[in-house]
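Tutorial, part two.
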Amino acid sequence: MTTSDDASKALAEAQEAAAAAQKKVEELTAAAAAEKAAEATPIAPAAPAAPAANSSEIVGIVKAGYAFEGIAIEMGALVDGEPVPDAQVRIPLAMLNRHGLVAGATGTGKTKTLQVLAEQISANGVPVFAADIKGDLSGLATPGASNDKLLARCQSIGQDWKSIASPAEYFAIGGVGNGIPVRASIESFGPTLLSKVLGLNETQESSLGLVFHYARNADLKLVDLDDLRAVLKFLGGDEGKAALADLGGLSSSTVGVILRELIAFADQGADVFFGQPEIAVSDFLRTTSDGKGIVSLLEVPGVQDKPELFSTFLMYLLGQLFKELPEVGDADKPKLVFFFDEAHLLFANASKDFLQTITQTVRLIRSKGVGIFFVTQTPKDVPEDVLGQLGSRVQHQLRAHTPDDAKALKATVSTYPNTTYDLEQVLTNLGIGEAIVTVMSEKGAPTPVAWTRLRAPQGSMDPTPTDQIQAAINASPLNAKYGAAVNPESASEKLGVQAAASAKAAEETRIQAEADKLAKQKAKPAPRKSTRMSPVDKAVGEASRTLGRTVARELIKNLFRRR
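Running the prediction step on this input gives:
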């Protein structure tokens, strides 16, 4: 190898070593720069886990979904295995006029849920009307009693429990039971509601409407059942048929059916429900001097005996509220919240006209500031057109022991918004005092479905003693207004006077006719004897004359012979 080759080889090795060193320097420089940049940049938090149907997810969803800006009614705490006190479930007070449903099997806590709602609604200055079917709701007027079990439950759901009594007024339909009498006139009750009570078919309902139309035009006030019976009997007679000739008439058979139904209705004691003084629905909208809403409790001890009357009477009160209250639109709080217990009784065997009346009332009455909560066993008890208008849902436990129960369960699940819950399983496993809740938010959207352990009532869970109820009734200013029934002049009295006058006029006409007849008889001359002889008289006379002639001839002959 020559000297020049050695030099060339050494140069190449030197250049290669230099390149490797340069590369190493660049790598170290880049590493140092990266380290410096890392030190200057804050460390970002770890990314959250992908959403999943787990505990942390449902808690977060419920917290966000029920975080309302305005005043809200506290329902209870989310159940996620155990109650989550800081995940509270609420109903916005301003959205109560969007109506609601409280449903569940017997013994699952519906009545206590009503009490919880009524107490808080009253405390926020809103009057409440509720039918007290079993008398249990009356306990809200008596401060509740504390015990360790109650306080432990309240602590577990974040409820600061206090013993509080709510202001209450007691009413009774027709004064049957303990309460200020609530009456309605037949005229204001109307033919549609009355037909529902009497169980009339559509043809008979139409005929009853004709009767009301005639009575109104003839100024015959229909106050009680006697008035309606009197008008029916009049229209079934000759004079009444003539009066209805231009209106299509009224068949005798239809009159007979309605009269028989009215008799049976009165025999059940229903006649005391109709009369005067008629209740003014404004008396259900009162508040106390300290701003609490008065809870009006309607005692209905015999609802099982007269289910249709009870439910229809409540519908009548709603209709009167709709008729009399002014439009208020969407306000900060409703004027009244109306709890319609045993709602299935209202819709059973209802005619098309009656269902249409209910649907229209529910749809439009919210603009009058009235919220309605239907209380029943399953949502299927409520027609779809009505159910679709109920913004809040509180569903207690459902049972699926029979095929019909299982069908009702599936139908109930289908009415809820999408949820991570297996509702068919959850609804059959809810404990007493627990419910699946979804309400209408302040923005008008449904809130997330939440398994909720409901709050405990702050009033007594036992009925208020009867003597205390009676004392409250006696002290009420409404007792003097509605306590005694009055009987004003109405259709039965007017038609009675009219019938008496007609009978008197008929009797006077008969007497006058008899008098005229006698007078005519006296005015006639005595009849002359006839000179004409009857055939018998003629025969007797002829025989007498013949005999006389014969006797005379024989006498003469005998005289001449002697000579």
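The first strand starts at residue 72 and ends at 80. In part three we will examine how such features are distributed along the chain.
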